[in-house]
Write a structure and sequence with these properties.
The structure holds two protein chains of two kinds. Chain A contains 14 helices and 25 strands. Chain A is an alpha+beta fold. The radius of gyration of chain A is 25 Å and the shape is globular. Classes of the chains: A alpha+beta, B mainly alpha. Bound molecules: flavin-adenine dinucleotide and iron/sulfur cluster (SF4).
Chain lengths: ~675, ~160
Amino acid sequence: MSNPASPDYDLVIVGGGISGAVVAKTVIEQAARKKKFPRILILEAGRATALSADKYDTYVEAYHEALAKVPNSPYHASSSAPQPDVLDIRKLKDTEGKPKISDQGYFVQKGPMPFGSDYARSLGGTTLHWLGTTLRMLPNDFRMSSNYGRGVDWPIDYDTLKPYYERAEWDIIGVAGDVEHQYYPIDGLDQYFRSSDPKKTRDGKYIFPMEEIPSSYLDQYMAKYADDMTITLPCMDPGEPDHEFAIRISNTPVARNSTPTTTDYRIVGAAGNADRGQRCEGNSSCIPICPVQAKYNALKTLYELIVKYPYELKENEKPGTRARVAVQSQSVAMEVMHAKGAETERAKVTGLRYKRYYDDGTGPTEHTVTARTYVLAANAIENATLLLASGNAANSSDQVGRNLMDHPLLLTWGLLPENVGAFRGPGSTSGIPTFRDGTFRDQHTAFRVEIGNWGWNFPENAPYVTVLDLVGGGNDGKAQLYGKALRKRLGEILPRQFRIAWELEQDPEARNRVTVDDHYKDALGKHRPVIEYDLSDYVKASLPWAAEASRQLFARLGMTEKRRRPHYETGDYTYYTPDDAAAVTYQGTTYWVRGAGHVVGTHRMGDDPKTSVVDSHQRSHDLPNLFIAGCGSMPTLGTSNPTLTMTALALRTGDEIAEELSK
Amino acid sequence: MGNSTSPPTPKQIFTDLSVELTGFDRAELAGTGMIDTYYDTLLRMIGEREAGQLLRYASDALTADQQTKNGAALKRDVIDSPRFGPVVVSLIKLWYLGHWYPLSGAYRDLHGATADDVEHVISSQGYREGLVWVAAGAHPMGGKPPGHGSWAEPPSLLTP
Ligand SMILES: Cc1cc2nc3c(=O)[nH]c(=O)nc-3n(C[C@H](O)[C@H](O)[C@H](O)COP(=O)(O)OP(=O)(O)OC[C@H]3O[C@@H](n4cnc5c(N)ncnc54)[C@H](O)[C@@H]3O)c2cc1C
Ligand code: SF4
């Protein structure tokens, strides 16, 4: 081990995803203001993913050639850095209905429900295959306990985070949106978006760095028929009035390039090929891969760092004159080494043990690295697994691994009476924000409504399944439909396919957790995440609500009749049977609840070390030279997709670390 | 079909058959660049002898149907044939999705199967050229992007 007095680096970051990349970039830029130039190492478990256009194309090709086009299909993992895959999700009950553990994938799922989301373990992390929705949280989302008696409050409020949201939107991700088309159920929307920076303001209103991505034809169709309708949902308390929700289709801010709103803003194109990906051109494959990188991914930020601050010094460069970043892939952090504090001295991290693997037949090698400050940014589940496998590091609160959350998705789908041009454009361009906040939150979780542009791709694997339904074959082996009739019928059906995702807010529960178990390790000997997961009654109570809201909306759009494939007529095709791994039964009705990929909780932030793992700067209460960054720090998750908020938090953490390293 | 002086080649028959199976004309099929590949795929999946038989029956049926214009012979002798029906089902899916779906167990019980007859995507190009996207008035997900903002425009279909 190195001499602790002269550590190998100023900062070691575990994980080359957006969280790690943002912390690194921020530390470098903020420290430079004080003429300090840190040396940073980013340890990445997965392979170094494409940093040039031609290499990136091979991932696009892998996606085209994949049999099942799921989020991780372009990104193959090695057995030394395995990753979860939605194809591994199984029912956690045997044929007699008894609980069963499922461990054929990377996750060990103990249930009672399978955790339905995945992430990517490759350089760039999960932003390689995210959708790119970048909504801010609402002010009330930070005060769930005070306002609604649910969950916990955050140690910071919306106003504290607001300037960081702005930086995340402008300086990191590059968000396209228009505040004029945001219709949130809050008072003072103007104030919510107001910026103190005149450069980010036009006519007194906040502007995003890029103009909104146009709403799809489907969104416009929806607005024509459903805008201004009222959805009425029953109150849980008998005798109390119903809740009424005014529907307004709202264009969604997204991490996708469009036209800059100011002359100053520089669009960031593809990593290694800035001419590509200047604008979203409608490839319609944001999940699992944007062929041109018009959608933000963390490779863009990492690439900038590698190019601007290479670790190797040039011939006449002196150490200490500029920041230096080393990215080391195929390096899996195995242990956070830490010393217990004596009475006068606080405990601290003393080093990181990691393994490098080579994929060429040679065995892995083991290493230790030291730094002044350490950051875990390996995503919520990996951060928790790593801490728990490190002799329960940073866990005096017993909250590490707990409060795991996602946005449980209730999908509903139907066939519209008219051609709305499905299967065109980004995955989603609009939503309905009305259910995101309101007095009902003391009894029902809030939810966000995401309107999908890709027909029945998500719930039914269309267009594949549609072709198979129409062509037939099966037992008698004869084609039912072929030739012009087939072509015509597909043209009548596919562009009318419609689906909605009702994304419920999950509340934090200590029993929903990640643990480790020596029986379950991967090829490198690293612990695999063992997951226990369920939905509270608070979440479940929103399932009939969302289903009822869907019925009213579908009726307005002309899809009242209940229908089932393989016959195709206008109507509501939503169905849930108990045999699916995602089945949840509540009050006698079965629903399917899918994962949204929003892996949140496991190292919650708070002011009290007894009940939280990190403080509001994501610093470990127990080990002060350790920061645990990412969606895992979020105490509650509201209804916005979490990455923008996580990026805002990472910026704040970066500022804090820069301040400290500059001392 | 070939001209009157020389009989059509097997690949020409395959193309003519594909036109009838898919509802896309020869120019559209040629435009995909997949005719050669899919012809080879057919030979690999059912063997050259059986493919020869299929194309012989198809050719006769197509010739007969030229008079009646109702496609009855093709339906009777190929589509509804227990021997060739399952093969053309896979061929239609192949053209539409760029994806080979294996022949049914019942078919294999009678005719056996080749080692290649497993579910797979033929190639990246085959995926992108799947006819289903054209039929839907769309474009393959992850390919042939229609351009910024095109999704805001009213949809249009190329009707057959
Ligand atoms: C299908 C899908 C769609 C999504 N859509 C959206 C969306 O629209 N909007 C939104 O806000 N969010 C979305 N998300 C969530 C979003 O992708 C994540 O919140 C975000 O990418 C997390 O970033 P991260 O840097 O914390 O973690 P990650 O991106 O997971 O990066 C962690 C990195 O750490 C590495 N690592 C892991 N373990 C180790 C180890 N032991 N040693 C070294 N390195 C390690 C990993 O390989 C990885 O590169 C989506 C997710 C999915 C799955
Ligand atoms: S629609 Fe296409 S170009 Fe736009 S972000 Fe998605 S994949 Fe990229």
